[in-house]
Amino acid sequence: MATTLDKVDVVTVGVGWTGGIIAAECAKEGLKVVGLERGQERSTEDYSMVHDEYRYAIRYELMQDLSKETITFRNSRDQKALPMRQLGSFLLGEGLGGAGTHWNGQNWRFLPYDFEIKSMTDAKYGENKLPAEYTLQDWGITYDELEPYFDKFEKTAGISGEDKNPFWGKRSSDYPTPPMKKTPLLSKFETATSNLGYTPFMMPSANLSEAYENPDGQQIAACQYCGFCERFGCEYGAKTSPEITVVPAARATGNYDIRFNANVVEVMKEGDRVTGVRFIDTVTFEEFIQPAEVVVLTSYVMNNAKLLMVSEIGQMYDPETGEGSLGKNYAYQILPGASGFFDDQMNVFMGAGALGMTIDDFNGDSFDHSDLDFVHGASISMTQTGSRPIASNPLPPDTPSWGADFKKASIENYTRTLSVGGQGASMPHRDNYLSLDETYKDVYGVPLLQLTYNFTDQDRALHKYLTERAVEIMEEMGAKTVVGRAPISDYDIVPYQTTHNTGGTIMGGDPATSVVNNYLQHWDMENLFVVGAGNFAHNGGYNPTGTVGALAYRCAEGIIKYSQDGGSLV
Prior knowledge:
The protein is an alpha/beta fold. The chain has 12 helices and 20 strands. Strands 1, 2, 3, 9, 10, 11, 12 and 20 form an 8-stranded mixed β-sheet that branches.
């Protein structure tokens, strides 16, 4: 028998960047907010011993426990989907801060082209640039409309950067803090790309270049360049994360509470409104109902989609007919690039998660695609994130996989190897989607989410083209041996690639082709909001966090408006 708790104005499912932003903005307006987080509480003090590569980067201390909940995967509809038994291609965060705790801190705004990609591509290249099976669509919002929310997120996070990229959208103000240190390694990339006629610039970073106080009065420290960012929390409080910014801001209002170890299994509904959520205490397995005037799904891409599916809210996407939108347009990323082996030793073991330089000359529609068999592109970067010894063992081609020669090459090349990599955009395809598995369930008896995904011809063509560009850059940098990344074939969920999953709860201007409107308000349930990278109608050439943060501020504004006036916001 479930225990019904006191009703609140707003309940969020998950307390990461999106849940924290929603909570802070709504609580400051006097709304009573409860955040339900299925993981545990944590803060900067918990990371004093975080420089343990094996514990955090190999055994995934901060990640989801797949023995309790996982996903099933297949490449195509004619295959049997099987569960992920250990984390591989992507890493699902858990606990206060979510993936915002263990991220690298690379913070981008998607390009103006991204938000109107269908319209802009058709206008420039014709409607048949990509075959019909690519389900490309606009987002229902423009870059200019979203720009104030980008600006607000960057000021909350204190992002360090420089406005020297000629290809991105116009900014209403400069970055709050200056760019990070330009190291000798980054200068090598800068010189090479400049020689090739490109425009390098310092990567926008949430590893702050200097101490900063954000508009809510939260203090963020300066980066120490220790080289332990992705998969780790920051013991200095210098990598901006929800637990040092928006969560304290929400708590300071007195209008916000968090309940930990609270795994939401259903969104409750009556007619065309939601009434709250049902959750299970992960320690005691007690069941609770949290009533709320507004429900906001703020958990990871996979879980937001799953909760809508198991709660039977919205029309499931059918790849046979193309009808329905829930689960549609799942997209990932490709990772073209090249490695270079040098004679000189370099301090590759020092760095930070977002210490890097980038070119956007091959991102979005910055270059002509008329004679190319793909659209979009990638940001191409060299990052100095810190080469940790367990996971970093770069070796030239034809090196034996064991023995004395293997050991000698490992020692020789550890400090003599650099990589240039691209985050390749992923276009949606009718056969790449999310659904519910008919066989497997989680520890709470809820069906697992099923991922059907494979790389496409678009992905393979883009990967090949961009790898060739990366090889050219590495050769210009003076490497004695250059190795381009191998061509991609079928997607494999086993090796780690990137945690930049998008789609499944896409936004748009048409209820027939999207799950939520441009305030992230559900088309079918006006007091339900769904916010995260699942709203992306395709994946771009950047990390998603900056765009997710902007959407969260847009969503918060919508929730406040709805709480005052009710009704549809568009």
